[in-house]
């Protein structure tokens, strides 16, 4: 159980994704917001075996609303609550995705009831994590292959974030 701040920092650390996310073989932030230092663009490579795909993502980090979004491809943003827009990306016939969009939203929750207090009587902050992933493959072969393993891949990625959060989140709070 963690407050939103350390979770947000872990999710916004796009350049570290390749060190813990399965199938993410490279993650390089290529632009940052000059005021906040948060990433605004990244080059990501995903792959399994001989199949590799590199794509550019436009990243939007909003620490006031606890939202991190990444978009690649040509699909406009249909979420009216966001300030990000269409992410133009160079595409060609060999690209795997027409578009790929992820949105993380962290929602602070009220403290748990007193019966679930942490050791020493301190109430722990809790956060609801919402993840929305939308994508469309460029060709039917990739869609068919991914359709067969989509749930397993998504589960492995969420599990990797959970391990990262448990490993780093407590250290970030203790500072």
From TrEMBL:
Question: Which BP terms in the Gene Ontology apply to this protein?
Answer: cellular respiration
Example of a GO MF term: ubiquinone binding
Cellular-component GO terms for this entry? mitochondrion
Which InterPro entries does the record cross-reference, listed alphabetically?
COQ10-like, COQ10_START, START-like_dom_sf
What SUPFAM superfamilies does its record include? Bet v1-like (SSF55961)
* Annotated Coenzyme Q-binding protein COQ10 START domain residues: 3-162
What is the annotated role of this protein in its UniProt record?
Required for the function of coenzyme Q in the respiratory chain. May serve as a chaperone or may be involved in the transport of Q6 from its site of synthesis to the catalytic sites of the respiratory complexes.
The record's subunit annotation is:
Interacts with coenzyme Q.
What family does the entry list?
A: Belongs to the COQ10 family.
UniProt-recorded name of the protein: Coenzyme Q-binding protein COQ10 START domain-containing protein
- The source organism is Elaphomyces granulatus
């Amino acid at each position: 159980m963690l407050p939103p701040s350390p979770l947000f920092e872990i999710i916004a650390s796009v350049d570290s994704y390749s060190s813990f996310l399965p199938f993410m073989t490279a993650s390089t932030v290529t632009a940052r917001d000059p005021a906040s230092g948060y990433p605004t663009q990244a080059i990501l490579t995903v792959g399994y075996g001989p199949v590799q795909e590199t794509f550019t993502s436009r990243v939007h980090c909003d620490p006031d609303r606890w939202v991190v979004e990444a978009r690649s491809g040509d699909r406009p943003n249909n979420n009216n609550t966001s300030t990000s827009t269409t992410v133009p990306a160079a595409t060609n016939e060999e690209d795997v995705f027409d578009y790929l969009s992820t949105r993380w939203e962290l929602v602070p929750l009220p403290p748990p009831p007193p019966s679930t207090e942490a050791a020493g009587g301190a109430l722990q902050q809790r956060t609801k994590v919402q993840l929305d992933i939308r994508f469309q493959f460029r060709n039917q072969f990739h869609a068919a292959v991914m359709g067969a393993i989509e749930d397993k891949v998504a589960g492995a990625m969420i599990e990797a974030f959970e391990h990262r959060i448990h490993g780093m989140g407590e250290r970030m709070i203790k500072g």
